[in-house]
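quick one
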Amino acid sequence: MDSFIPLHKDLPRNVTEVLGLAWGDEGKGKVLCFLAQWADMIVRSTGGNNAGHTVVYNGVKYPLHLVPTGIVRGKATCVMGPGMFIDPKVLWDEIEFLRKNGVQVTPRNLKISDRAVVVLPYDIIKDEWEEEKKGKSSVGTTKRGMGPSAELKATRVAVRMIDIFENTYKDRIEEIFKFCPKEIMDSHPSLKQECIEYCAEYYVKLHPFICNTQEIVNKSCERGKNILFEGAQSYYLSMTNGYYPNTTVTDPDASGTLSGGCVGPLHAKYVVGVFKAYTSRVGNGSFPTELFDEKADMIREMGHEYGTTTGRPRRVGWLDLVQIKYAVQANGVNCLAINHLDTIGEIGLKNSEKILVCTSYKQDFNHYSVSEVHTVPTNYENVKASRFEHFAGWKIPKNCKTFDDLPKEAKAFIKYIEAYVGVPVAFIGIGPKDEDMIVRGTFTHDQ
Ligand code: IMP
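structure w/ inosinic acid:
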């Protein structure tokens, strides 16, 4: 369609988003760390310390939950956007850990949005309480207080960073405790005072970092700076579009990630979708390609699939291309990153020379009819993986640097994924270290 309204101006397309395409833990940190070399600014904009990104940089392992991982490179301005839920204690411990390891963290290179929600001790206690109340239908949350702080945000009584900055948190906390369930009040009689003292302590420590990040980020956008958005959680944990109700409480998709940083969609240039060569999930809910037998143990052990945030053993299964393709469409992903190509190759060698990849589901409509589907339905509980493509395993050779250096079986696996999903794979993770990554084509973030 011809545009008949003259465009006001061309906006610089200078934002790269890195998103997870499954249920989290796809290895976004590694891709982020690589892309951070070009970034002038790195923005984290959704969730809180329910996320965990581990980066290994200059031989030091940084398990970060809140601060954008790119801070370890020391070049970019790091921003924690309005869409975040921030536990001040966890943030302060992280800042101190970074400083102890020689990473400079100052109000010049770390900006905390004054609109971000503050996670209080109350939220953590309520998260545990709600999960216990739900019993069998519990979500399996990370118990980091995300749900309750989002409830308070929706009720419009949450403490935000601006309340810490302007010293107005006491009134907010009084409001919050009007909604505190009696059971919690009775079992934690001093909780309100604890929350007040918590804010008072972190008022002193975090005050210099709190500002209006909206202005800073958008000025950088207008000036054409390279901006990297660090996705947290993943598409299928999105509350609006994920496997509801077993989701988190934010929308960590392509749009939610931008709006959580207060940036408009026309600035996006690349949406990098990260996934693993198999699938993993923590928490409860449907998982169409899940494995339970010794194959599951093999993937879990070989892929080190234990939660960074909670230490829980992750549920694991085969790669689900129905799920990946749907997430690619729904987020406008234009570039893929696959991790654990080395792990799945070796699993293939051990599993009587076979790697499986799911290519369609069977959906059971209340036992009335069963049909084959190639998309992700709204009622996930009644889908099962039904068709699989089979691949032979491989071992990644030493000094493997380019796509051409990969064994032919591994190349066939990547090419099959690209053909099925319709988007090129630009990044291929072939080992645990950040440098164990093949970068294909001429991907750069230069304008
Ligand atoms: P919550 O975000 O702690 O409320 O947990 C809701 C669901 O999202 C649970 O199944 C969690 O295990 C899952 N979840 C939240 N954050 C992450 C993440 O960063 N990686 C993987 N799963 C997550």
